[in-house]
Amino acid sequence: MSPRRWVLRLEAQCLRFLMAFGMYLNRLAPPRPPPVTFTKRIPASTGPEPRDVGLQFYTPREYLQRGHDKRLPVVVNFHGGGFTIGAGTDDARWARAVTQDVEALCVSVDYRLAPEHPFPTAVDDGVDAILYLVKHADELGIDPDRIAVSGFSAGGNLAFTVLLRLRERALHNTYIKVDPAQALLSGTGEAFRIIAIVAWYPSVDFSKPRAQRRATNPRPDQELAQFYSNLFDASYLYPPGGNMSDPFLSPGVAPDQMLMGLPDDIAIYTCEWDGLCLEGQRFSERLQELGKNVRYRMIHAVPHAWDKAPNPIRVHPEVEPRYREACVELRRLLNER
Length: 337
Description:
alpha/beta, 37% helix
């Protein structure tokens, strides 16, 4: 590893500690989110050691009392942090909303982080997580015909790129078959269907320079500090000089044919005071032009990751209603199948 990579690794480890403490404070504010019900570590199919991925399971109250024939829907979630920091437990408040309002399992993926594991490791880890849940649906009590995907920031990127990667892997492997019209995939002997995507302030277009993206924020004083974005980009986009328009990195500029394979129902939430807002809005418009049912919402007067403030006293007043709004729609989509 080059000297510069060692510096990045040290900086990332320091920020991971600070992020973990900030999220601990966030979880103290009422209403307090639930703890993880149980965890699993699954093997990863690609990338350097260690080759395992953590899954954090949050379950509805009735999950442990369910009958053997009862299957519940599942929302597979990807946390944020620039692919470099963060953990699956960061979205515990979202998991609370999913388990209570959707009455579904929420499985948050602890994908491997950069700079130790640069692009596309996180994408491949997400694919492995979904295929694991499908393969073990019986023992986990999951209905593989009722799967949704969600993510925040970098995780919002993964909510799209993981599904694009999953489809690409399916097209090149005989044991996974794809019905393009229905986004129906069959893996490891079982059929499964991904119904919807919910992406919160996603990063979807690395083809534009970071400075250009930051300049679109109407409130530069509310933009994520440049130190963080520089660290995230240097960590994940390695080695330098790669194709920034790669669809598994920048779904916002992926070919139409690839985007047509995404689920029909997509919700995208952006933040008004965020350099990622404009690209999220443009991606929403493009998906609508392709015939997708897109629910786009820009949350006014909030910065990036507004729902993750390290405030132990109270959460932002928009968190509960926005989460509930998204979950009401998820419940409808997952229960009408």
